[in-house]
Amino acid sequence: MKREIIKAKYWWRCCCDSAFGWGAAWCRDGFLLARPDYEARARERLIVLLDGFKRLGLCTEPEYAAFAKSVASEQLSHLPVLDKPGLQKLFPRLQENYKHRADVYPNATGGSTGEPVSYLRSKLQDNAGGGASYEMFKLLGWRPGMLRVSLWGSERDIGRAEKRKGWWKSLLDDTTLVGAYAPDEEVFRRFVDTIEARPGCAVYGFTSLLAECARVMVKNGWQLAPGAVGTAWVGAEAVSDAQREVFYRAFGVRLRDHYGSRECSTIAAECDHRTRHINPRYLVEAVDHATRRVLPAGEVGSLLVTDLFNEVTPLIRYEIGDLGSVDWGDCPCGRSGFCLTELTGRTAGLFELESGRKVSALFFNHLLKEFPTVLQFQVLRDGLAEFRVAYTGEALSADEQARLESVVSHLLEGARVTAVYMEQLDRSASGKLMQYRDLRDEAEG
After folding, report:
1. Which residue of 50, 109, 288, 415 has the lowest C-beta tally within 10 Å?
2. Residues 340 and 359 both lie in one domain
3. Can you say whether the dihedral through the CA atoms of 225, 231, 235, 237 is positive or negative?
4. Residue scoring higher pLDDT (4 or 43)
5. Residue 277: enclosing H or E segment and its boundaries?
6. Over the stretch 286-301, which tens digit does the pLDDT of each residue have?
7. Burial of 69 (0-12, 13-18, 19+ CB in 10 A)
8. Which domain holds residue 225?
9. Are residues 151 and 256 in the same domain?
10. Is residue 38 situated within a structural domain?
11. Model pTM greater than 0.85?
12. How many domains does the chain have?
């Protein structure tokens, strides 16, 4: 038996070495390099990417050519900024470039806005991206073999996870997803029972859903056995100290922050010392939203992300839509590197219907994907059972608009719903699109 265990461990190590190789090594080494060495290596990688994009007819602006000839890392600040509308405009060019390539596939991602990003389907690319993500999940306290339980997805999310292929799917096979965009106590009870059946598991999910589950657990006196949860993290929304506190009371472990996006995967992860370490596969900057001026270390601005691993979509200085600050630091955990010292992300939260049932505004991300001409949306609440769905993109036909209103009304338990086309939607103080606004509260304020 002991020999079999040793053989299994050796097999797993060999798999990790081969599958995670480049990405994992890049990520691990990035945390051990001095700042000048890391910036030089990242710059060399970016020059290789730019050269490839230039041959494809992308990134042909003079600034990109000047960057390739420069030796100063500050030259990055002279490159153009890619915003979300810019990424939408770029997508047709990507489709034209890659329409005859079987190894490139488009993926409509980006949550509510559906920013389309193309990826390269290759073993090397999968290993690079997956290996880097693997190292970041280790920061969150996850280890190979640790089962995962997620209070995250709708049935559509679960279906997408089940369709994953390759070695990364072998890790996700150990994940149990509980669909809960409109959770009730029965859903939370099922989530808790799933955790109890998998002692020592990793728990993750939407911030607001996990916080609400914790509140229900405390209210009802639901107790988990010590050690039932090995580690836990949140994503998709910012996490507050109050949410961390109620989660700890209910689950017995500290809640960590996982910052990422559908376009860029895992951007930063929080270690034991509450430091948000930026994934070394990305270059992250904080700039003034109006002037695009790079801000001093620690000063909050609009976050730009450069993906050093995507070889087919130039996610270079991509404005992801969050506010935050970036600084270089040496963490007591033994890692050095760039960190997110402040982060103001999307906070969708839960809102309560007339019946008392609570719904997450993030649910509408998936609903609106059934209407491909809709780029962005916002749920506006005018009354207890009166809502408007404001959207941008192309105006829907009368039939499409009626269908949208009918579907949303059904999901909101028969509430009166009106779809409204708008040129632009209001944003929060952080610059992030507010997916749900209760105009009754705003009127009182």
Report:
1. 288
2. no
3. positive
4. 43
5. strand 276-278
6. 998 888 999 999 998 8
7. exposed
8. 11-344
9. yes
10. yes
11. no
12. 2
